[in-house]
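Section 5: illustrative case.
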């Protein structure tokens, strides 16, 4: 996969996609494999924004049972099965525990019924899935078994726990990239560090974008018959009328692992009203998800009125989150210094977010031809990584229909959906060279945070940054000054994610 900026302006594409988060890459993957000529541009690196910062649960929508929304559950179950089938090296089964208590919605009896319903609704969940990636039936365990798994959680009110299973994306960055690689193999022209600046509209028809190559500063015009705006929290920069409210969503990454390979869902201390729920539980769940050498804890939400480029985290926000965790589960004795990083993304908010900071629950595909124009533009508002696959695909299908093409059913396939080999202890130079030559790694941060797993869990240290920058520098002709600038820029990204030293 080569970065060829000239190819972006050399011809008119059937479809231009702006933004390479999960929604944009799924759209590019779906369209290019069906023979559409596709251009995919990304203002930073592929999958480096919201999609890099999720809790990585590829979920089957168990919580939608509470909303009695079986259609949404089925959509999530189908997406989860597709990820488990297509990318078994990257998406693995993970079991979650949720303590039961009382006689209401979280009682053992109600949870047992819910788990049984979940098994029935997802009876086909393992069709075509590799044997070691299949998800077993859900079950309920006794109080004794719960405390055997979580000895320090000995709360008198707990009567046992419900256990369910979901997919877990060990590496969302490689997963995102696999869609890009597959689209490029099918003929798509893809480029990171190309920013769409202005939509070109002629006679109320969107015909392309004026864009900038952020690496060279060159201005380019990209022409297309259909355009998908998959710019995530920046989607209003493509179509200003889409301006809306956002929440900042963040997870703590901590250096402690408490519950083996089990994830844990615990009710937070604060009250919560879910406007979609038929059955209110009154509290929201925080998840503790084992990941690499530690745990991800999330998700926390804050109203975010600012520019998504200004996202970041303060020491006070981290301390407040740590306090909330300790209130819920004092025996964990979490310390601020256990936090290695904070994963942050900006998400669409529910109306009234200023008051209660809740993320929107519904993805949407906006056909601007039917919504005030211009013709030729489709925007995606996406709210889940899991369903990003089908929502991106549906947007591509809509664009294809508008082009008068027949949408063929195709078996799912992904290229390069593999875990990287490089570790902090052993930097595999060939892998970094391959990332530069064939996976469009342009900046040091691309290699540290996304092509390898070196830096998404914690800051890997200056020595690792320097070794990788030297290898990249030899490929890309960087001098000492450029190497220093790349290291400083990578540190800037870590500061944005809570590394203050
Ligand atoms: C903390 C957190 C936890 C989450 N946990 C889960 C979870 O466990 N499971 C789950 O399913 N979902 C989860 N989500 C939700 C999920 O991550 C998001 O819904 C999804 O990743 C959004 O994808 P996207 O493609 O819409 O946006 P993005 O990933 O933000 O992609 C949009 C891309 O467009 C690019 N772009 C913007 N403007 C331009 C422009 N002008 N030109 C070119 N490119 C542009 C951006 O740089 C960006 O890369 C979580 C989200 C957060 C933040």
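Designed sequence:
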């Amino acid at each position: 996969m080569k970065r060829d900026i000239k190819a972006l302006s050399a011809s008119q594409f059937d479809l231009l996609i702006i933004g390479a988060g999960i929604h944009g890459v799924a759209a590019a993957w779906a369209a290019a494999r069906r023979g559409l000529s596709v251009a995919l541009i990304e203002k930073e690196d592929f999958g480096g924004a919201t999609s890099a910062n999720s809790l990585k649960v590829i979920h089957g929508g168990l919580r939608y049972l509470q909303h009695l929304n079986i259609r949404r559950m089925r959509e999530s179950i189908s997406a989860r099965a597709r990820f488990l089938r297509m990318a078994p090296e990257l998406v693995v089964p993970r079991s979650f525990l949720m303590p039961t208590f009382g006689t209401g919605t979280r009682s053992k009896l109600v949870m047992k019924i819910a788990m049984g319903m979940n098994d029935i609704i997802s009876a086909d969940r393992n069709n075509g899935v590799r044997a070691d990636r299949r998800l077993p039936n859900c079950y309920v365990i006794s109080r004794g078994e719960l405390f055997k798994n979580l000895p320090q959680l000995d709360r008198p009110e707990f009567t046992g726990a419900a256990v369910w299973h979901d997919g877990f994306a060990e590496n969302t960055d490689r997963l995102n990239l696999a869609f890009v690689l597959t689209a490029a193999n099918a003929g798509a022209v893809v480029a990171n560090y190309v920013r769409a600046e202005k939509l070109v509209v002629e006679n109320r028809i969107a015909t392309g974008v004026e864009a900038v190559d952020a690496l060279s500063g060159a201005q380019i015009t990209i022409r297309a018959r259909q355009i998908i705006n998959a710019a995530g929290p920046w989607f209003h920069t493509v179509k200003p009328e889409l301006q809306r409210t956002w929440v900042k969503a963040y997870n703590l990454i901590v250096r402690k692992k408490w519950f083996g390979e089990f994830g844990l869902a615990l009710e937070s201390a604060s009250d919560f009203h879910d406007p979609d729920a038929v059955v209110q539980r009154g509290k929201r769940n925080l998840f503790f998800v084992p990941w690499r050498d530690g745990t991800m804890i999330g998700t926390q939400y804050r109203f975010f009125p600012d520019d998504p480029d200004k996202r970041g985290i303060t020491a006070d926000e981290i301390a407040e989150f740590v306090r909330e965790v300790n209130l819920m589960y004092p025996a964990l004795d979490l310390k601020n210094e256990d936090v290695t990083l904070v994963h942050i993304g900006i998400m669409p908010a529910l109306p009234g977010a200023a008051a209660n900071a809740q993320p929107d629950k519904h993805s949407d595909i906006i056909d601007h031809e039917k919504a005030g124009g211009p013709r030729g533009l489709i925007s995606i508002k996406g709210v889940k990584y899991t369903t990003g696959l089908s929502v991106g695909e549906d947007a591509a299908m809509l664009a294809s229909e508008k082009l008068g093409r027949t949408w063929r059913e195709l078996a799912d396939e992904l290229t390069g959906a593999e875990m990287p080999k490089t570790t902090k202890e052993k930097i595999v130079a060939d892998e970094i060279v391959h990332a530069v030559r064939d996976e469009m790694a342009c900046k040091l941060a691309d290699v540290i945070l996304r092509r390898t797993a070196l830096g998404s869990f914690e800051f890997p240290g200056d020595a690792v940054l320097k070794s990788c920058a030297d290898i990249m520098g030899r490929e890309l002709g960087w001098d000492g000054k450029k190497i220093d600038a790349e290291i400083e820029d990578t540190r800037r990204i870590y500061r944005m994610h809570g590394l203050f030293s």
